[in-house]
Structures are given as C-alpha cells and as structure tokens.
Amino acid sequence: MLVQLFIVFYGLPKVGIQFDVWSAAIVAFSLNVGAYASEAIRAAILSVPKGQWEAALSLGMGKFMVLRRIIAPQAMRISIPPLSNTFISLVKDTSLAASITMVDMFMVAQRIAARTFEPFLLYVLVAIMYLIICTALTFLQSYLEKRSSKFLG
Predict the structure, then answer these.
(1) I need a labelling partner for 150 at 20 to 30 A (CA). Which of 13, 125, 136, 139 fits?
(2) Tens digits of per-residue pLDDT, 51-64?
(3) How many CA atoms are closer than 13 Å to the CA of 52, on its beta-carbon side?
(4) Is 75 in contact with 47 (CB distance < 8 Å)?
(5) What is the CATH number of domain 2-152?
(6) Nearest to residue 106, comparing CAs of 87, 128, 132?
(7) Confidence band (pLDDT; 50, 70, 90) for 150?
(8) Taking Cα atoms as reference points, which of 87, 89, 129 lies closest to residue 109?
(9) What is the pLDDT of residues 91-102, one digit of tens each?
(10) Is residue 134 predicted with pLDDT exceeding 70?
(11) Alpha carbon distance 93, 61 (integer Å)
C-alpha cells in the first residue's frame, strides 16, 4: 500500500499525471481495495456450486436472473467476511497517507509530538482511536454475518 501511494503521488507526475494529496490517496486506496474486493467477490461467486447454475438454467431462467436471484444472494453471504476485513484493513491503512503529507490522525499526532516531545502518549491515543473504530467495524461485521445467515439461510 505504501509503495502504491508513493507511485501515485510521486511517480505519476513524472509521466504527466499529477494529483493533489487527497486525490492521490483516494486513487491509491481505491485501486488497492478494488483489487482485493473484486477478488473476494469473484471467489464468492465461484464458490457457489455449479449445480445451482445448472438447476436454475434448466428451469428456464436467463443468466442474469440466475445471477440475481440464485447466485448473488449466496455469494453475498460468502463475501461479507472478506469484504469486511478488507474495509477494516483500509481504515488501518489510512495512516499511511501521512507519508505523502496528507493530514490525518497520525499526521496530527506527529506534528503535536514534534512540538511537545511526548510522542509515546500521542501515538498511544491514536492507536486507541484506531482500536475503537476497528472494534466498532468488527461488531458491524459480526452483525452483518449473523443477519445474512438468518436472512439467506
């Protein structure tokens, strides 16, 4: 992720593509998460047994209807854990944006630490804030998994 941030922010201007800090961070994070999320969705769709496709097609359903009504609900249930984990990792990875001078929680802590000479306390506070956010997202993930199990069988 760090290398990707550096390539987008520092490397692409060498070939004429320039982004401001926020846009570079959004592009880098989007490309990274998009790759992992698309792989999770692809794997979830492929994990649905082929017999499900064949049975629905033999009933006269079109491919789009089979995907929408039979495959997608099953794949959604399977893809919730990896997609949630990817999102939680994204939240933690946002601290890397400070390396391309984007002001975030970690950058603010670095600036305050440079003035107060108390880096340990500030970094512990930032870590606690990330812990709170990630714990809340983990509870949300657990809720979504339980809900999808009840709703989708």
Answers:
(1) 136
(2) 999 999 999 999 99
(3) 16
(4) yes
(5) 1.10.3720.10
(6) 128
(7) confident
(8) 129
(9) 999 888 888 888
(10) yes
(11) 43
> How do the domains of the chain map onto residue ranges?
2-152
Interval 1-41: pLDDT, tens: 999 999 999 999 999 999 999 999 999 999 999 999 999 99
User: 114 by DSSP, 3-state: which?
Assistant: helix
44 burial via Cβ count (<10 Å: 0-12, 13-18, 19+): buried
Task: Name the residue type at position 139.
Answer: F
- d(CA 92, CA 112) in angstroms, rounded, equals 20
Task: Quote the percentage of the chain above a pLDDT of 90.
Answer: 75
Two tokens, residue 7: 């390539």
72, 46 contact by CB (below 8 A): no
Residue with tokens 């601290």: 95
